[in-house]
Structure formats: structure tokens, C-alpha cells
Amino acid sequence: MIGYYILLGAIALVSWIASSTLKKKFAKYSKIQLRNGMSGAEIATKMLADNGITDVEVISTPGQLTDHYNPTNKTVNLSESVYNQRNAAAAAVAAHECGHAVQHAQAYQWLGIRSKLVPIVSVTSNMSQWVVIGGLMLGAAAGLGFGYWVAIAGLVMMGFATLFSFVTLPVEYDASNRALAWLKNKNMLSQEEYAGSEDALKWAARTYLVAAIGSLASLVYWAFQVFGGSRN
Questions:
Q1: Is the pLDDT of residue 19 over 60?
Q2: Residue 74 exposed, middle or buried by CB count within 10 Å (0-12, 13-18, 19+)
Q3: Most buried in the list 90, 110, 111, 164, measured by CB within 10 Å?
Q4: pTM of the prediction?
Q5: Cα-only R_g, the chain
Q6: pLDDT of 41-58, one tens digit each?
Q7: Who's near 172: CB < 8 A, 6+ residues apart?
């Protein structure tokens, strides 16, 4: 138990460092104004057009770091600062989200898998740990039938969340690679601007990696409590 909390504490610390660094990076690169004078919305529109995508709309969404691509209604949703601003950070985020739209248009396998997992994870992720705990309280650790199967159900739910976290990694890394390749090949940014965009996207990807590792650590711990305890 103590080892688990130490591990979770370490992961939480790394997650906080990655998140804090990401915010600092975006604040830094938000000060690098684009020489081409294009806003995030204009960059997104151009990237979609250059990839032959005409059925995706670029819209502004409230909040900070709320940027995302919605495959259901085919919209690239950019936070207000990204949508309107004309800096390296905005360019990176706008192009990254359009990278997801390109994935969708080209039927990128990992995006399809993640999309199928979304409705499952949205229902099970918040309750999975409580289902496992409930199963343990009902006697799963002692190998008792009903409690054991309740705990197993909780682990399956938790497993879907962990799977989702790891499937997200290639989706996010690929979207960033597509974004950076387009920004470079189309000469959208100067060398300094491109370096800032690349660095910002790398740190964004690291936050997903830390989240996936944390999800796996939690799954392993609770699996040990169910299966390890039942052997005692």
C-alpha cells in the first residue's frame, strides 16, 4: 500500500511538472508573433484546405486549453486565444487540431479505435475504482464469488480507461507530426517560430504520456489487490 502511494505521488509530481512546464512554454511562445500575421483560425483553415478537407468548420470555443477536434460534427474547436491570436503557440495548437481532422479524413486507424472507446470510457471511467472497492468490501480479496466478480467488473472498466490512455498516445503524437510537417513544408513559420511550435507540442504530448503511465499504475495496483489478495 505504501509503495503504491509513493508511486502515485511520484507520478502526480511528474504530471504537475509536465503540466506546469507546458503552461510556461505556451506563455513563452505566445509572445513570439508570427511574421506572416496569420491567426490560429486562419492557419487552421489553410491547413484544412491544403489537405483537401472542405467539410470541417473552424470555430471558437470558450476557455483556455479547450482546443479539440470533434469528429461527430466535424469541427475544429479552438479556444478564444488560439482562434484570434497570431503567435507560435496559437499556430502549433491550431495545426495540431487540424492534424486530427486530417486523421479523420484519411481514416487513421488509431483515431477510429479511440473514437469507439469514447462512449465506453465516458460511462465507466468515473465509477470503475468504486466498483473495485465495492467488490473488495464484498469479499473479493477472500475469493468470495459475488464480490470477486464485482471487482473483476470494476477492473474491466478501469482497463478500458487505461487502454484509452495508451491509444490516445499515437493519436496525439501523429497529429503533432502532421502539424509540424505541414508548417515546415508550407514554410508557414520562420525558424524561430517553428522551433517554438515544435517545443510546445512536444511538452503537450508528454502530459498524455504521464497520464497513460498513471492510469496503468492504478490498474496494476487494484488488480494486485483483487488477485493477490484472493491467494492469501
A1: yes
A2: middle
A3: 90
A4: 0.87
A5: 21
A6: 999 999 999 999 999 999
A7: 204, 205, 208
* Pairwise CA distance, residues 86 & 231, whole Å: 60
Looking at residue 111, its pLDDT comes to 96
Alpha helix segments (H runs only) across the chain: 2-29, 40-50, 80-84, 88-105, 109-124, 128-137, 145-185, 191-223
Task: List 59's β-bridge partners, or say none.
Answer: 77
List the 75-79 sheet strands across, edge first: 57-61, 75-79, 68-70
CB 155 within 8 A of CB 74: no
Nearest partner of 84 among 99, 101, 67, judged by Cα: 67
31-61 exposure pattern, b = at least 16 Cβ within 10 A, e = fewer: ebebeeebbbbbbbbbbbeebebeebebeeb
What average pLDDT does the segment 169-192 reach? 96
Find where cell 491550431 sits.
94
- Report the greatest alpha carbon distance in the chain: 67
Are 87 and 33 in contact, with CB atoms under 8 Å apart? yes
Taking 70 as the threshold, does the pLDDT of residue 89 lie above it? yes
Find, among 104, 86, 85, the residue nearest to 175 by Cα. Answer: 104
What own/partner pairs with CB < 8 Å and gap ≥ 24 does 58-62 have? 58/83, 59/83, 60/84
Residues near 103 by beta carbon (within 8 Å), at least 6 away in sequence: 110, 111, 171, 174, 175, 178
Task: Report the distance separating Cα 184 and Cα 180, nearest Å.
Answer: 6
As annotated, the active-site residues are 97
Write a three-state SS string for 32-52: CECCCCCCHHHHHHHHHHHCC
Amino acid at 223: A
